[in-house]
Amino acid sequence: MPGLVLSLTNAGLAAVQGASGADPVTIAELGLTATPFDVAPTLTALPGEFKRIAAISGAAAAANITHMTAYDTSSDVWNATGLGLWLADGTLFAVYSAGSTIINKAAVAFALISFDISWSADLAASIAFGDPIFTNPPATEDMRGLIELATLEEAQAGTDLLRALTPGRAKAVVLAWLLGLDGAGSGLDADLLDGQHGAWYADIAARLGYTPLNAAAYTAADVLAKLLTVDGAGSGVDADTVDGHHAAAFRRVVSSNIAANGGYIEYSDGFKETWGWVDCGANASAWYDVPIAHTEWIVPALAVSVQPGDDNNSENTGVGVITLGPPTTIEIYSAENFTARVFIQTKGK
Prior knowledge:
Elements: E1 4-5, E2 7-8, H1 10-17, E3 25-33, E4 49-53, E5 56-62, E6 65-72, E7 78-80, E8 82-87, E9 92-97, E10 103-105, E11 111-118, E12 127-129, H2 152-157, H3 167-181, H4 198-202, H5 204-208, H6 220-228, E13 253-257, E14 263-267, E15 272-280, E16 284-289, E17 298-304, E18 317-323, E19 329-334, E20 340-348
Parallel strand pairs: 1-11, 3-12
Antiparallel strand pairs: 2-9, 3-4, 3-8, 5-6, 6-11, 7-10, 8-9, 13-14, 14-15, 15-20, 16-19, 17-20, 18-19
């Protein structure tokens, strides 16, 4: 049954106010009445009292809760609608009245009365009991004793400080409590990842410090277009160099004529190579027109065809006058007594 809320009489209040934990007031008897009455602090007697039970014991279950046990071994038959607590000095300490029966006893039964009294103030520590029979107090955070199991409704409410949860009730309500608190701002770490909500991770650009590219939309053509914007000398792109060198570091062919006679190659730095031949008559000179003009310098090299039985052709053939151009010409002379084919190779600018 719920705790009975007893009302102190004026005399009882005065007694407990003068008491302390070291010198408490002593409740010696439990008085019973079957007459409903109006509770008033001025009462000094229990209206309609029909019995007193001296065998009572109790203990403080909490600051404002006293657990009390009374023991009636008589053959009396009674029904009680109210009760009063009497101090050892005969003072009516506190009273309770209800409109219907709260306690009853049959003739063949012993009455073991065990109930909790809720005081309207923290008085439990200042109250003692005279008869040290057994007590069966409710369990609290500070006292071992009986404990009531919570119903599903009480468990769902989550406000009861005295009733206990079974594993089944706990399973039924704990998840519901958590789901009721789930979400941003709940304070539950289960709602977070390393202390952050999901929205924190969804902001990818903020986490990376830059906006990532959309790989599906970024094609090879996009990459090429961006490379072309930095293409050229000084771009720093290695594709613009060969072994780390730009094109200016290499001699490039700018024009050529790959022919057996009158062939040439012209390079980007102005250097030129030519080759060809000219037939020079016996004891005569011939002019070789260089296929591409040299304006700065030219170095010719000669080779002469050899006639059978003649082993000194090259000694009788040489270069006469060189005219830089344009056009560029070279005079070839021969002291042979036959026509000689002179092969000419030049290098210059």
